[in-house]
Amino acid sequence: xxxxxxxxxxxxxxxxxxxxxxxxxxxxxxxxxxxxxxxxxxxxxxxxxxxxxxxxxxxxxxxxxxxxxxxxxxxxxxxxxxxxxxxxxxxxxxxxxxxxxxxxxxxxxxxxxxxxxxxxxxxxxxxxxxxxxxxxxxxxxxxxxxxxx
Length: 149
What we know:
Elements: H1 2-15, H2 45-57, H3 61-77, H4 81-94, H5 120-145
């Protein structure tokens, strides 16, 4: 009986629209896949970081499909259309939100989280964290433009 009550309380809490807290953005580049070719080891790294950003925030099934196709397009535009097709197959097979992996769809949110549109609160969290990242990058760029002592 106690287990039933605890379960009912938890379900009520989450069903009432409990907003999850978005974890800070992290990227591992292209996960277990190379970030580029032996000659240019970061050739498509930017494609993977953009893909990670989409996966971190999560969203609907259509948004995931769009992120995966954007990854394929980006890598193909880098001059590697065959690698792009292989990467698309990999992310389609391994990026499910139902797998407890650090690179799953919606990995910025608590597991488990299925496909669903982000709420207004969740979108605000995404915007806030992206703005923080942009600010940090601007500061880093400004520091690199300063003359060395």
